[in-house]
Amino acid sequence: MRSIWSYASTAIYYCQALAKRARMRQMAKDTVQEIKERLGIQEVIAPYVKLTRAGKSVRGLCPFHKEKTPSFHVSPERGTWHCFGCGLGGDAFSFIEKIEGVDFKGALKILAEKAGVPLTTIYGSAGKEEASKKDRLRALMTRAEQFYAMQLPGTEAEAYAKKRGLSRESISAWQLGYAPDAWRTLLEALAAEGFSTEELLAAGLIKEADGKPGTYYDRFRNRLMFPIHDAAGRVVAFTGRALSADDPAKYLNSPETELYHKSEILFGMDAAKDAIRTRGFTMLVEGQMDVLLAHQAGFKNAVALSGTALSERHLTLMKRYSENLMLILDADAAGLKATARSAALALQAGLRVKAAQLPAGKDPADLVSEDPKEFAKRVAAAKPIVDFFLGELAERERDPHRLLRLAESIVLPLIAAMPSPMEREHFVQAAARALGLSGEAVRESLKRLPRQPFAEEAAPRAAAPKAPPRLSSETRSEQLLAVVQAYPGTPLAQRVKSEYCRITEAQELPLTPLPESALFQAEQAFGEQPEERAADELLRAFETAVIREAYQEAVRDLRRAEGAGDASAIGRAQAACAKLAARLAAFEH
Fold it and tell me: Which of 15, 248, 299, 341 could cross-link to 294 by cystine, CB 3.0-4.6 Å?
């Protein structure tokens, strides 16, 4: 049996652990506050959005959706932003998370660097060591990118890139490089700069020789090097394209590391995210060369996978910038199979999916380099994914029976993956027309599909019951509260508080925090320096609503009294109704 001292020791340990966590949370809060004090929100947003003065706030075109009239507002006073077009809003941290495609920790690091606030204070010793280790790996990857880029001029790799149609400007912008045809060139160069063998291994830049422990060599040799960046623009990995026809691996990718997780990274997303927001869709192509040539031709919303299949995390990253996806993959059988799989996952995740048809035997890089206008025409003619496959299968399979079997295995799972019942029904009818069947036959086949994990997850949730509409006096009360919170300490706020108490016979206006959208609306309505009389109309509407609702309640009291046959209650209710009716008529007049 454990002694009381053992229990006490355990309790003390947990109390100390809880206290340590509380201190860490407080330190993190203090760091966030210090960043906000040093960096104004306008200073954070201005590099991304052109802002102009609009009353108390500043405004510009929203970077998160396409618009012609500015609906994106920023309050320097409160340190918040809100877009009336797409409904997004928040503080400086949420803005950086959204615009840079990073989580809170990533936004914290970006803003801390901008504000000059050290982050090591919010980590314990293990955290400091981990942060230092990652910083070293990031520095190492940056140096490797620079090293490869310096080796490129005059090499076979540069000649190959130009032969594929890349311009000098594209080669420079994407920091393409060359891994020399030697065993230890990179290793020796970076070791001379102070990077250890362990760090080079952790970054995936070198390998240990089989059967020779302690002997290391460069992972990439005699290859055209494509740096892979995360959404924040930091190099995390490489893809090397073989330059020798004898090399068994045409493309070689970095292994998974602390910085690089294949299921989370999309090649080119750092360069494409702004264009994705502007054009309204993500263009997913086959590989790195496809991305570079697409960007060079003006399709700057193109991204690619890096040696892995499309994952849920890839789709989550895409949805940060747009819910529309266009697939432009190779036109061979393998490319179509990849298109079908990617489309099913994307539909399950709630994206709207189209696909563009390429000429037989052409990949996106071939077509965009040979005939950019034809590529643009194919993109413009992209079809919803079900229509795309119905057309592709009909062209490839002339036997009606085999066509039905293919449609059942490829097209019907795509329809089943759609979350919207209306969309499913639309494409059921489209499939029925294309295959010469009845809609009922297609629906029956859908029911018999093998159970798929994504089908159930993507099923639309039952709509939550709608909350009863708020009384108009509550709405008016919130509008008054928004004025008070948007203009604290002003004569306008004092008058609104006073009038609210007079109208409602309350002691004070309830100061419940309101969403930023309500405060921005108040600022747009009342301007930068509002006068007291600016609230007259709002106060009058509020008082009218209060009187009207009191009258309605008095009428209900009268009906209840009449139903109960209570003569005394009937008299009181009639008097109240008459008084409120006269007050309402006089007030409205």
Answer: 299
Q: What is the pLDDT of residues 258-298, one digit of tens each?
A: 999 998 899 999 899 889 988 999 999 989 999 999 999 99
The residue from 260, 280, 308 where one domain ends is 260
Helices and strands in the chain, H and E counts: 25, 16
Does the structure show a pLDDT above 90 at 233?
no
Residues 74-105 pLDDT 10s: 988 888 998 888 888 889 998 988 887 777 88
Among the residue ranges 210-219, 393-402, 419-428, 551-560, the one predicted with the least confidence is 551-560
Contact residues for 432 (Cβ-Cβ < 8 A; gap 6+): 438, 439, 441, 442
**Left, alpha or beta for 587 (phi > 0: left; psi -120 to 50: alpha)?**
alpha
Same structural domain, 138 and 116: no
In degrees to the nearest 10, what's the CA dihedral of 562, 565, 569, 574? 30
How many alpha carbons lie under 13 Å from residue 492 in its C-beta half-sphere?
Answer: 23
Q: Which of 457, 489, 516 is the last residue of a domain?
A: 457
Task: Write phi, then psi, for 242 (nearest 5 degrees).
Answer: -65, 140
Assigned domain for 219 exists: yes
Angle in degrees, CA 517, 519, 521, rounded to 5: 70
For residue 573, give its domain range: 472-588
What total of structural domains would you count in the chain? 4
Answer yes or no: is 9 within a domain.
no
Q: In what order do the strands lie in the sheet with 302-304?
A: 302-304, 282-285, 324-328, 352-355, 383-384
Classify 530 as helix, strand or coil. coil
What are residue 236's phi and psi, to 5 degrees? Answer: -125, -15
Query: Can you give the pTM of this predicted structure?
Result: 0.63
What is residue 238's predicted lDDT score, i.e. its pLDDT? Answer: 97
> Which pLDDT score, from 0 to 100, does residue 414 have?
94
Does residue 351 belong to any structural domain of this protein? no
**DSSP assignment letter at 76:** T
Decide if 355 is inside a domain.
Answer: no
